[in-house]
Amino acid sequence: LRPPEALFGVPPYGGSLQQNLYYADSDLCDPAVDTRKGYPIRSKDNDGNMLPWPSPYILMVDRGGCTFVQKVRNAQRSGAAGVIIADNTCLCSAGDSCHSDPGTDCETREPIMADDGSGADISIPSFLMFKQDADPIKAEVMANHPVRIEMAWSLPSPDDRVEYDFWSTPTDLVSKDFQKEFKDAAQALGDRAYFTPHMYIYDGIKSGCQGPDGENQCYNLCTNNGRYCATDPDNDLDKGISGADVVTESLRRTCIWNEYGKENGVGSEWWDYVNEFMFRCDNEDYFASKECVNDCLAHAKIDKAVVKKCMQDSGGTTDDNPNEILENELAAKDSAGVVILPATFVNGAAIRGALEFAVIFKAICSGYVAGSEPDICTKCANCPNEHSCVMNGYCHGAAQGSVSNSVFLSSLVGLSLFFSCIGFIQWRRSQNQVREQVKGILAEYMPIDKQNQNDDLALTEEDAEFS
């Protein structure tokens, strides 16, 4: 089965989780989770109460009543290692394989386990299981039969090239470090991976920013008479960076990618421009400055005339005209189900967890068909410092780039001989010092002995005269 994965929590990409399944027989909307309920039936304690679910376990809960995030959070607090949400509505595409409850219409689209904005504290993985799949499993568990579930996160691996997408905005703070660092990985992966950056904007028409007469009703948050909008990053409509400025910069970056990165999927110039912009123009004084933007383009070796033509030919940002590029971004956003920013996808699968170099690099390397991973993944995916490994081409402390056993042993013997010689020299030196000290002591006492001998001879002569 490939059920929809939650857009929150931190799944172990490339790994799996196998545990016994327990059905809570509840929607788990109440934070006070009763772990002594549910199925299969367990033994009872001395007080006659059923024993709680033995940790670790995977918990199945019913859909409905509250958000997905609330259910999974309550399950996490109760000790669950993973959560399966049992759908209560059939998909229309399921046909006769699924039977809905009386009076319940089927769903035309697969539901998305979206983050409600509060899911940052959730660390366990979760899936939504379709009704036609969940009902038989639920029946087995309620019949008191043990069921063991495996939750696996082997990313889709269609071929020997991985495609990864990145969603952000020009004012996003969380993704800055990632954008500064990941160019090294994009270049190292080369044609074995295809990168696509996306800019997140709002549909102004659906949001009510374009009035019946075609006028922009959202002040400076939108371009094209209210068609394409972005939030005001500094929450001040009278000064600073406006939403329209963000939309314009989003269009510019998409054009840079289309002209300089779309063909090879690496886009070194795009990464260079983004980094130059963050360094030079990422403040309210220069964000919308043409001079600053042109300076960034020049440093990134991008032809400003090519970018300007792309922005104008796609529909521009001033008149009440649709912009082809921005329309494509709106459609891609809806298709991917992007809600929380920043967001990344590998082979179409959403990547959960912190937007860090190591997380995304490992996810990309997990997306290749087994045995087709590029050398950079083999060298660096399991390295303690993935970024350093990618930059240097080897993992510090790994076999790659290290000396052979024979060289190591020879070096060890050589060092032993060297230190033995040093020790022998020090010993000889200390022996010489001791001899010199002894000679010095003897030299001090020799004059005294001679003096005593002379005194004895003198007394003998005097005694002879008196005798």
Report on the architecture of this protein.
The protein is of the alpha/beta class and 467 residues long. The chain is 39% helix and 12% strand. The strands form three sheets. The protein has a five-stranded mixed β-sheet with strand order 4-3-2-1-5, sandwiched between helices. A four-stranded mixed β-sheet has the order 7-6-11-12, with helices on both faces. The longest helix has 62 residues, at 405-466. The protein starts with 15 loop residues before the first strand and ends with a helix. Residues 399-404 and 457-467 have low confidence and may be disordered.
Global geometry? flat
Uncertain runs: 399-404, 457-467
Quick one: biggest sheet?
Answer: 5 strands, mixed
Mean pLDDT: 86
- Round the Cα radius of gyration to an integer and report it: 37 Å
Number of helices: 13
Work out the helicity level: 25-40%
Distance between the termini: 134 Å
Strand percentage, roughly?
Answer: 5-15%
- Biggest sheet strand order reads 4-3-2-1-5
N-to-C order of helices and strands: EEHEEHEEHHEEEEHHHHHEEHHHH
Tell me the total number of β-strands.
Answer: 12
Class derived from helix and strand content: alpha/beta
Topology, element by element:
Layout (H helix, E strand, L loop, with lengths): L15 E8 L34 E5 L5 H11 L3 E5 L39 E4 L1 H12 L5 E5 L9 E7 L7 H6 L1 H7 L3 E7 L2 E2 L18 E2 L4 E2 L13 H18 L7 H13 L9 H10 L4 H10 L10 H13 L6 E4 L2 E3 L5 H9 L9 H6 L5 H7 L12 H62 L1
Parallel strand pairs: 1-2, 2-3, 3-4, 6-7
Antiparallel strand pairs: 1-5, 6-11, 8-10, 9-10, 11-12
Helix pairs in contact: 5-6, 5-8, 6-7
